[in-house]
């Protein structure tokens, strides 16, 4: 165990996509400026720390993934502390502070952190600092930055208390006399309430750089006619403020070009989640009309010759590349157009000051430059403030340098949110906006996150279509923005749409000498099983499905599976099934008109549809949204949930649908039970807890 001085504290992180690790590294970097030393480890490295014997304060940074689960790196740790045989004083010696990361767009906000926090409390551990819950929906930094600022005082108080406890003969008296003083000295923050109202102070955090503004040297104050700030322009007070900017992250990667040739790694080597399967796309259908607002595609994959298994309701991941033209553009800006196919060797920089520096797992030690930029790095990622801070050092123009400093500073927090975060600005946009910025390849590898595989809901049943897997998606369109003057398609959906374009026009496909399509495309996938979003184990149990737009996708698999079970087991009792579907226009984006076939053959008991943008000449306007139709069926919905103990499934958009559906269910329960809203909310919470109200939603 390192760092055994009394100024040491243990720093643990549990990350899924790298954010928790990056924040832990920021804490580690700032610790030295406060006379402290952080002993930092991934929470999965349980051989490198021992909470059972830990005497120093512990700081935990933990994210949330899936439907409120701890990240994969924390699973063993959580399983260990959830051992029911542990006594209630197991961690009575432990002092800790916890920072949870989450997204309030999802139901179980920060549940990964809450789970660990709650269990540590149950086992007797004590907070030395208030728990922070940071919301990626509005900007993690709104909570993370002030939480880190307040951490140092709390740590010093906790360490001082620990020192006094060890140095006094009467330890019990020492704890009672000093304990309340130390805890009251902790800087209190209302971290989990409305973070939008949290005001950041101008005084700089220790461990960051404070830059004075020299208006004589830097002409960034907008003239009278340009009083609005933009990505490249600031206005008072930001343009006239001294700035508190993050400390410069230490460099830790070096890249060497090689003259030798070879082969790039297989895509499966980039995935740590399990076995990958390369499968052909056998069918592609556009489900929407050309004049629909969104383009929805159905793709069919051939998994017959693989060991890939799934249940209706499961999800799976597609390994996708970055847009090749964007990669070419990036290479051009970096002056590396001629070197794209050259092999590079990526290693840790000798003498780096970064603790525990290692080559990122998603970066192969040896591959071509294009392979790294196409398959490994998320070049569309919204740049973090630490990345902006590093880009400052690569920028030669004084005005551009100052603006980048502002965007990563405490004073420029609202500008960062408005012009970078909310505008979905990426590295390419920054390099166009700040042309004197010329980052090195090693800097990109250090700061750009891993290119994540994209998750999709299965829209088929292996019982109904053996050896086939179907899924449905909207092609994501990102319109141009003042901060991002180029419109783009989604990384994965845009790539898939381009990949299957020939299948959408089968008359253009030619066959080779073996009779096979010369344009058959393959994609790499891996399973992502869903532990809960499945059909009821008892087929006699009724269930309700709510899935507007592409949210209907998993329910197609549900119904296919149910139809096949009915054919195979005519003697079984099957519960009634309800489907509430909605779209904008009946003639443009009614995705699955064959739903009526399920209705006609008895697989589906009730089909309720609505069309939000179609005009009506009826005296009483028809309902526009699925939540409106639910309310019209209030008695039946309440009966299925309460009397028949049925299941309720919701799939689709979180912000614009799932919350409204949840509110409608609360209203229905309140009305039909003749109970107040609070009691209805408790019933819904019980349904969630019993896994009878299930969601598969996205933001």
TrEMBL record:
SUPFAM superfamilies: Ferredoxin reductase-like, C-terminal NADP-linked domain, Flavoproteins, Riboflavin synthase domain-like
Pfam family, any one: NAD_binding_1
InterPro entries named among the record's database cross-references: CysJ-like_FAD-binding, FAD-bd_FR_type, Flavdoxin-like, Flavodoxin/NO_synth, Flavoprot_Pyr_Nucl_cyt_Rdtase, Flavoprotein-like_sf, FNR_nucleotide-bd, NADPH_Cyt_P450_Rdtase_alpha
Coiled-coil ranges per UniProt: none
GO biological process, one term: methionine biosynthetic process
Cofactor names: FAD; FMN
Catalytic reactions on record: 2 cob(II)alamin + A + 2 H2O + 2 H(+) = 2 aquacob(III)alamin + AH2
Subcellular locations according to the entry: Cytoplasm
The enzyme's E.C. designation: 1.16.1.8
Enzyme class: oxidoreductase
Cited Gene3D superfamilies: 3.40.50.360, NADPH-cytochrome p450 Reductase, Chain A, domain 3, Nucleotide-binding domain of ferredoxin-NADP reductase (FNR) module, Translation factors
Stretches assigned to the FAD-binding FR-type domain: 274-536
Flavodoxin-like domain location: 9-152
GO CC annotation, single: cytosol
Any GO molecular function: flavin adenine dinucleotide binding
Subcellular location, principal: cytoplasm
Protein keywords: Amino-acid biosynthesis, Cytoplasm, FAD, Flavoprotein, FMN, Methionine biosynthesis, NADP, Oxidoreductase, Phosphoprotein, S-adenosyl-L-methionine
Complex and partners: Forms a multiprotein complex with MMACHC, MMADHC and MTR.
Identification of the protein by name: Methionine synthase reductase
């Amino acid at each position: 165990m390192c760092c055994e001085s009394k100024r040491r504290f243990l720093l643990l992180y549990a990350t899924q996509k790298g954010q928790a690790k990056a924040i832990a590294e920021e804490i580690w970097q700032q610790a030295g400026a406060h006379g402290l030393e952080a002993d930092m480890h991934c929470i999965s490295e349980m051989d490198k720390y021992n909470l059972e014997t830990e005497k120093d304060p512990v700081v935990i940074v933990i994210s949330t993934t899936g439907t409120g689960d701890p990240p994969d790196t924390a699973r063993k740790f959580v399983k260990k502390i959830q051992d029911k045989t542990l006594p209630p004083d197991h961690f009575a010696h432990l002092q800790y502070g916890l920072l949870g990361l989450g997204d309030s767009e999802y139901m179980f906000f920060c549940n990964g952190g809450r789970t660990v926090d709650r269990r540590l409390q149950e086992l007797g551990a004590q907070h030395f600092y208030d728990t922070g819950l940071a919301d990626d929906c509005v900007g993690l930094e709104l909570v993370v930055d002030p939480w880190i600022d307040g951490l140092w005082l709390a740590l010093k108080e906790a360490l001082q208390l620990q020192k006094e406890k060890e140095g006094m003969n009467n330890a019990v008296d020492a704890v009672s006399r000093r304990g309340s003083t130390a805890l009251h000295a902790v800087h209190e923050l209302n971290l989990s309430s409305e973070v939008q109202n949290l005001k950041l102070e101008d005084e700089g955090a220790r461990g960051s750089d404070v830059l004075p503004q020299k208006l004589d040297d830097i002409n960034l104050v907008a003239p009278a006619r340009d009083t609005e700030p933009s990505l490249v322009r600031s206005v008072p007070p930001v343009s006239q403020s001294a700035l508190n900017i993050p400390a410069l992250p230490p460099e830790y990667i070096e890249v060497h070009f090689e003259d030798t040739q070879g082969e790039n790694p297989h895509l499966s080597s980039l995935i740590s989640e399990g076995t990958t399967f390369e499968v052909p796309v056998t069918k592609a259908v556009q489900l929407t009309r050309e004049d629909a607002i969104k383009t929805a595609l159905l793709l069919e994959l051939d998994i017959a010759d693989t060991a890939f298994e799934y249940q209706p309701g499961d999800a799976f991941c597609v390994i996708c590349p970055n847009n090749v033209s964007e990669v070419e553009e990036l290479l051009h800006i970096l002056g590396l157009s001629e070197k794209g196919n050259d092999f590079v060797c990526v290693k840790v920089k000798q003498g780096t000051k970064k603790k525990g520096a290692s080559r990122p797992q998603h970066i192969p030690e040896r591959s071509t430059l294009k392979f790294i930029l196409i398959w490994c790095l998320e070049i569309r990622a919204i740049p973090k403030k630490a990345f902006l801070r590093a880009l400052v050092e690569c920028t030669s123009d004084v005005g551009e340098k100052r603006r980048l400093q502002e965007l990563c500073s405490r004073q420029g927090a609202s500008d960062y949110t408005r012009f970078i975060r909310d505008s979905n600005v990426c590295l390419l946009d920054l390099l166009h906006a700040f042309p004197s910025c010329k980052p090195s390849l090693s800097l990109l590898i250090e700061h750009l996150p891993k290119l994540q595989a994209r998750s999709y809901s299965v829209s088929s049943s292996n019982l109904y279509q053996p050896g086939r897997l179907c899924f449905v998606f909207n092609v994501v369109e990102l319109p141009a923005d003042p901060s991002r003057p180029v419109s783009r398609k989604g990384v994965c959906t845009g790539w898939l749409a381009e990949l299957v374009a020939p299948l959408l026009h089968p008359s253009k496909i030619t066959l080779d000498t073996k009779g096979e399509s010369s344009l058959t495309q393959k994609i790499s996938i891996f399973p992502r099983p869903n532990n809960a979003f499945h059909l009821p184990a008892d087929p006699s149990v009724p269930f309700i499905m709510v899935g507007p737009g592409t949210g209907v996708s998993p329910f197609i698999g549900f119904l296919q599976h149910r139809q096949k079970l009915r054919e195979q087991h005519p003697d079984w009792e099957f519960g009634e099934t309800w489907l509430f579907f909605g779209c904008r226009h009946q003639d443009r984006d009614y995705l699955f008109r064959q739903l009526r076939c399920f209705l006609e053959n008895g697989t589906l008991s009730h089909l309720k549809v609505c069309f939000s943008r179609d005009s009506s000449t009826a005296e009483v306007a028809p309902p526009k949204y699925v939540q409106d139709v639910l309310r019209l069926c209030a008695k039946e919905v309440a009966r299925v949930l309460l009397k028949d103990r049925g299941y309720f499934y919701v799939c689709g958009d979180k912000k614009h649908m799932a919350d409204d559906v949840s509110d409608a269910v609360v209203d229905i329960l309140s009305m039909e039970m003749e109970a107040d809203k609070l009691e209805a909310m408790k019933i819904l919470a019980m349904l969630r807890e019993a896994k009878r109200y299930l969601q598969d939603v996205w933001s």
